[in-house]
Amino acid sequence: xxxxxxxxxxxxxxxxxxxxxxxxxxxxxxxxxxxxxxxxxxxxxxxxxxxxxxxxxxxxxxxxxxxxxxxxxxxxxxxxxxxxxxxxxxxxxxxxxxxxxxxxxxxxxxxxxxxxxxxxxxxxxxxxxxxxxxxxxxxxxxxxxxxxxxxxxxxxxxxxxxxxxxxxxxxxxxxxxxxxxxxxxxxxxxxxxxxxxxxxxxxxxxxxxxxxxxxxxxxxxxxxxxxxxxxxxxxxxxxxxxxxxxxxxxxxxxxxxx
Length: 258
Prior knowledge:
By secondary structure, the protein is of the alpha/beta class. It is 34% helix and 25% strand. The longest helix is centred in the middle third of the chain and has 11 residues, at 110-120. It is globular and about 40 Å long. It starts with a strand and ends with a helix.
């Protein structure tokens, strides 16, 4: 068993698999079901599916798509997008989702996080915290539509989310998203110091070395999107995932540290 998780993160919009840069300019790259079937063959341990259109369009989760995905997914599935509260979470769990990923709900109504954690357990609740770094180096929360959007107190939000029941934090570096030029290890280190639950770092992976650097900075797991979808300088679409031998050589295994 690997010492650290490496998680494909798939973005969907209008039932299609897309990729973004800086959380903008979504580009269609294929059918999410086909991608999931490939990841099944690669024996991926965990997969995250994020609907980037649900909340901006004031819609709930696309339960039909989730049902189709869950029926094809042979690994634990985490889902985020449009989750408005406990009722949506219950329905997602009933469809086979193992974890719900909450961003807007956590930013606007932390008691909703608590309610889901009380129902399903903290291990089934992940809070997503998106952080944007501007040209001057200032970091702020990125959560359009919430009172926290633009706040510099992202560490406080992380801690409050954990207190509310989050059993895991996904930390997204918005300005690194889709760039494949390396992760914000300073951001990861700061979050790792503040968190008491597993930290999943996302944003900027373009090589295996980037994954290792994120782990060394304090991440417990790394989520990758473009790195597992694009290939070569022209970003040709090619769904891939490193083999177990490659990842165990990079990160080590539980037996190595036991």
